[in-house]
Design brief:
Layout lengths: L4 E7 L3 H12 L4 E4 L18 H7 L2 H7 L1 E3 L1 E5 L6 E5 L11 E3 L2 H14 L3 E3 L3 E6 L7 E6 L5 E11 L6 H5 L4 E2 L5 E9 L12 E5 L7 E8 L2 E9 H13 L5 H12 L1 H6 L4 E2 L4 E3 L4 E2 L8 E3 L5 E2 L7 H22 L1 H30 L20 H13 L6 H12 L1 H12 L13 H5 L14 E2 L2
Parallel strand pairs: 1-2, 1-10, 2-7, 4-13, 10-19, 17-21
Antiparallel strand pairs: 3-6, 4-5, 8-9, 9-10, 11-18, 12-15, 12-16, 12-17, 13-14, 14-15, 18-20
Helix pairs in contact: 1-4, 1-9, 6-7, 9-10, 10-12
Length: 471
């Protein structure tokens, strides 16, 4: 039996792929989503940005998210010894309900979005691994070769291929177009804990970012994803990790990754305190080689969206929003391609790519400043200050907007602001204005435990097979 020709074939059913599928279905196209895993499955990237909010509303999943997931009113940055901190509240710049974002269990969040794509008419095939693709068929179609859970091979043909395979980077790896950001050479570890202390702003939903000592060039990211479910991620410099691996293996630790993760938790004041009576609730996930980019992210019959084409660093929780919004934008360009032909379609894709690349470049600049030991340290700044100095009140708002996810439409303006902060004299003046203002230790962002956790029930990750290096 001959398989039908789909308008779009999407590799990967994560937030980027499922969002692209839904948007394209709304435009009337036939869509096939090929996902190698069976959802739900564990994944990293649980803290979402306020700028995701209108996407959730548009996709029709917002009410479900309010019922199921913990809310997030802002981010708190702390020093490794716990002596300094600052809180950045989204309500300072967002004056509607979208200031209250979300912390999610990715296994459940991703399944919700994939089910939503199926509900809107996308054909979804899970446990279907893409083995290879052909992009040079005579009719400009694409052919995708897969293997199913039963081990049987299957071919699918489509008019356009979207690679949303995330850190599998399906096309980039096979074309030799995957390049590392060498200055972002880090490894991430993540697991969930039960029995943690909900203090230090965790009880009111704040994302906690804890700077580690400068020689480690890393941080802890802590977010509540349930009433008794705390996600604790560690991102660390690879050079430091290699040194510690040698020491731990020499000391006889067979599970050296877990030993290292627990070692760093004990050495950090905040994590040592809040996890003193807690226990690990799921296998440890480790992700390496996660900072990369592809040079050629689209052509007349393919596109790489989200993490499949570029990923920087998880520090500002930007990955889900960058992927989902890129899917929304590119769906508009692909509609032009299908209706007006290759020339107009390529122009439309190039125009969308300008904004997508601008957003990624802005985030990259912000990340590089974060890791620069000679640049500003967000734990030492107050976000709540006000100033009558012309231009500086706007500057305070710009940091808020960056943390909230305003990457696409204003990337040039924000980029200029970040360049300003690299100037030692201008930065010193800006910093002095910030720290001289009141309310430097705001703790709650005006939220309560009830507003953050509501009536949700803890949703425990049901997949336990993932352990060790994912990418």
């Amino acid at each position: 039996m001959t398989s039908p020709v789909f308008d779009f074939i999407i590799i990967g059913g994560g937030p980027t792929g499922s969002s692209a599928a839904t948007y394209l279905r709304w435009k009337g196209y036939s869509v096939l989503v090929l996902e190698k895993e069976k959802f739900p499955r564990q994944h990293v990237g649980e803290s979402l940005l306020p700028f995701c909010y209108p996407l959730f509303k548009e996709l029709g999943v917002l009410d479900e998210m309010k019922r199921r997931f913990v809310r997030k009113p802002g981010a708190r940055f702390s020093s490794h010894d716990g002596k300094q901190s600052s809180t950045w509240c989204f309500r300072n710049i967002i004056h509607d309900e979208s200031y209250l974002s979300f912390h999610v269990v990715r296994a459940d969040f991703d399944k919700m979005l994939l089910d939503n794509a199926a509900k809107h008419g996308a054909e979804v095939k899970e446990q279907t691994k893409v083995e290879r693709v052909e992009l040079d068929l005579p009719n400009d179609h694409v052919r995708v070769h897969t293997t199913g859970a039963d081990g049987l091979a299957q071919e699918y043909e489509g008019r356009f291929l979207i690679d949303a395979s995330g850190q599998d980077t399906f096309l980039a790896r096979r074309t030799g177009d995957k390049h590392a950001y060498k200055e972002l050479d880090r490894i991430a570890f993540l697991t969930h804990w039960k029995g943690a202390k909900y203090t230090q702003g965790i009880d009111v939903g704040l994302l906690q970012i804890v700077y580690l000592e400068s020689h480690k060039s890393g941080w802890f990211g802590i977010q509540p994803v349930g009433k008794d479910r705390l996600s604790v991620g560690l991102v660390i410099n690879r050079k430091y990790l290699k040194e510690q691996k040698a020491k731990l293996t020499a000391a006889g630790h067979e599970e050296w990754q877990k030993a290292f993760y627990l070692q760093e938790i004990r050495e950090c004041a905040l994590t040592r305190d809040i996890l003193s009576d807690a226990e690990i609730a799921q296998p440890l996930i480790a992700v390496s080689d996660f900072s990369y980019y592809a040079e050629k992210t689209f052509g007349h019959n393919f596109a790489m969206l989200g993490d499949a084409g570029r990923f920087l660093d998880p520090i500002f929780a930007s990955g889900v929003y960058l992927g989902m919004n890129s899917s929304r934008m590119f769906a508009e360009a692909l509609d032009v391609l299908m209706k007006q032909g290759r020339e107009e379609g390529l122009k439309a894709m190039e125009e969308k790519k300008k904004y997508i690349d601008g957003a990624y470049s802005l985030v990259e600049k912000f990340i590089n400043i974060f890791y620069d030991p000679d640049s500003f340290n967000l734990a030492k700044l107050s976000s709540t200050s006000e100033s009558n100095y012309e231009g500086y009140q706007t500057a305070f708002s710009l940091v808020h907007y960056l943390l909230a996810g305003d990457f696409f439409n204003n990337y040039e303006k924000y980029g200029d602001f970040l360049d300003m902060l690299k100037n030692p004299k201008q930065f010193a003046r800006w910093r002095n204005l910030v720290v001289s203002r009141p309310n430097v230790h705001e703790k709650t962002c005006g939220t309560t435990y009830e507003a953050i956790f509501g009536d949700i029930e803890d949703e425990y990750v049901r997949t336990t097979s993932i352990n060790g290096i994912m990418a």
